[in-house]
Design brief:
Elements (H helix, E strand, L loop, with lengths): L2 H14 L7 H15 L9 H11 L8 H12 L8 H11 L12
Helix pairs in contact: 1-2, 1-4, 2-4, 2-5
Length: 109
């Protein structure tokens, strides 16, 4: 899995406000963004079902700052993860949590 593809996919979906999360890789990057944007504390090694439960509890309490954030919350609320979990999901979560180029598809070199 090329992690930048999952990152770009989430950003494009939020910018265009179309589509849904299509896998756990996107799910973990999106969850990292929630941690960054809202300050919700999420353990970096959380498994998919636990992450779903945590987000279901926290997202309704959050007020999105813009339309991208609002769509991000909607995609996460609607997503049902698979059971699979690997190190790239943790990597994507941390990337989202530390994202420096929010809502930008290409990363400056």
């Amino acid at each position: 899995m090329v992690t930048s593809i999952a990152r770009q996919s989430v950003i494009i979906k939020c910018n265009m406000q179309k589509s849904v999360l299509t896998g756990n890789y996107e799910f973990y990057y999106a969850a990292g963004l929630v941690a960054k944007l809202s300050g919700v504390s999420i353990p970096e090694d959380i498994k998919p079902e636990e992450l779903t439960t945590l987000l279901a509890e926290e997202i309704p309490k959050l007020t999105p700052a813009d339309e991208q954030e609002k769509y991000l919350f909607t995609m996460l609320a609607d997503y049902r993860p698979g059971e699979e979990y690997d190190g790239q999901m943790k990597e994507l979560f941390l990337w989202g949590k530390d994202e420096k180029y929010l809502w930008t598809v290409t990363i400056p070199s």
